[in-house]
Design brief:
four-stranded parallel β-sheet, six-stranded mixed β-sheet, alpha/beta
């Protein structure tokens, strides 16, 4: 049974309301989870982009508080943190990290402290907004020189300084966090079975810290879907000898997540992990740097479909999607775009916030961008 957390006990119905435990009943009560989102998220046809069988999974609607793909991961991650009786969540990302903001918001909701280890990225209005919202939700902010320095600090120094802290990998992409997207693909299978959309031949999603793609790919295998997940790289493939966003990194995370599931359930089959496919031509000058194709895709989906994208993740994934569906071989195949950006309106929450709330080093980045 899940231990009591800051918000009290959760009912059996809440714990059982996930496709993972419905499909593999012996997982019931063995995957600590806090229900944070509104699931299942809708699937809709994209009818105005020149493809007759194009669909979108609206994970921008996972929550009115703060949506996007991080909610699915945090349900399992914060559940695990509370099970371990941790009182502080520590994670990392760029200074405009959506993952960091989602973690700060939901940690605050559960009465947990949050510390963000940040590194510089190109500064735009979206980044500035997130920086201010970190402060609103009480996150402790620390800035390092780059992603390698931030990662080393998180995994080494923070473990020593905060032995009771819950260290959350970049993007929430640990095997525990990845369970959120295994569950998501089983959710999609239920929607296919209900006749809400055809079985996708391809699912397109952005790839940063690998957890979304790894979970969707593993979920497709466990669901028995004839679906290939195609990732669109939005960060560097490697940093020195460290693979950050690569097919091999996704495959390793799939293997680790499958091992976790098989530890918890005798019903999980032993499936072979196939080679993964990542499109690497949409990154441009780097993480957070918009490309011309990205900006055109953002404009097109906004004007034709009313879908808001961001320049860091979803704009680049949508640019790849538009090229993908234009290829003659994909003209009639069912293609699904998995939308990972939060569409929650944050404007009211920004009232009264200013950069004076930021630590001096982050304030300089905010003002100098």
């Amino acid at each position: 049974m899940m231990e009591q957390g800051a918000m009290g006990d959760y009912t059996k119905d809440e714990k059982a309301s996930i496709p993972l435990s419905a499909r593999f009943p012996d997982l019931e009560g063995r995957l600590p989870r806090i229900p944070l989102g509104n699931f299942p998220t809708p699937v809709e046809r994209l009818a105005h982009l020149g493809h007759g069988n194009l669909w979108i999974k609206r994970d921008d609607l996972t929550s009115d508080i703060y949506g996007g793909n991080k909610v699915r991961k945090l349900e399992f991650l914060l559940g695990d943190a509370l099970r371990r009786r941790c009182r502080k969540i520590i994670t990392m990302g760029g200074i405009g990290t959506n993952h960091g903001l989602a973690t700060a918001i939901y940690a605050h909701r559960e009465g947990l402290a949050c510390r963000l280890i940040l590194f510089p990225q190109p500064v735009n209005d979206h980044v500035r907004r997130n920086m201010l919202l970190f402060c609103k939700y009480g996150a402790e902010l620390r800035c390092r020189k780059g992603p390698l320095s931030a990662g080393a600090w998180l995994l080494l120094a923070e473990r020593l300084l905060n032995p009771r802290g819950y260290i959350l990998e970049a993007g929430g992409s640990s095997p525990v966090g990845t369970l959120g997207f295994v569950n998501a693909m089983l959710e999609l299978k239920d929607q296919v079975d209900a006749g809400l959309l055809p079985e996708p031949r391809y699912v397109i999603c952005p790839v940063g810290s690998n957890g979304t793609m790894a979970g969707l790919s593993l979920g497709a295998l466990l669901a028995g879907l004839d679906t290939t997940v195609v990732g669109v790289r939005v960060t560097m493939e490697r940093l020195g000898l460290v693979e950050l966003s690569s097919a091999k990194a996704v495959e390793r995370l799939m293997t680790r997540t499958l091992a976790l599931l098989r530890q918890r359930s005798a019903m999980i089959p032993r499936v072979a992990i196939p080679p993964q496919r990542i499109l690497g031509d949409y990154l441009g000058d780097g993480y957070g740097c918009a490309t011309d194709k990205c900006l055109r895709a953002m404009e097109l989906l906004r004007d034709r479909e009313g879908i808001a994208l961001d320049p860091t993740y979803t704009g680049k994934a949508a640019a790849a999607l538009l090229d993908f569906i234009a290829e003659p071989g994909h003209a009639k195949e069912p293609v699904l775009y998995w939308h990972t950006y939060s569409s929650a309106d944050l404007a009211e929450r920004l009232r009264g916030l200013d950069c004076g709330m930021l630590p001096p080093d982050l304030r300089r980045l905010y003002e100098g961008g």
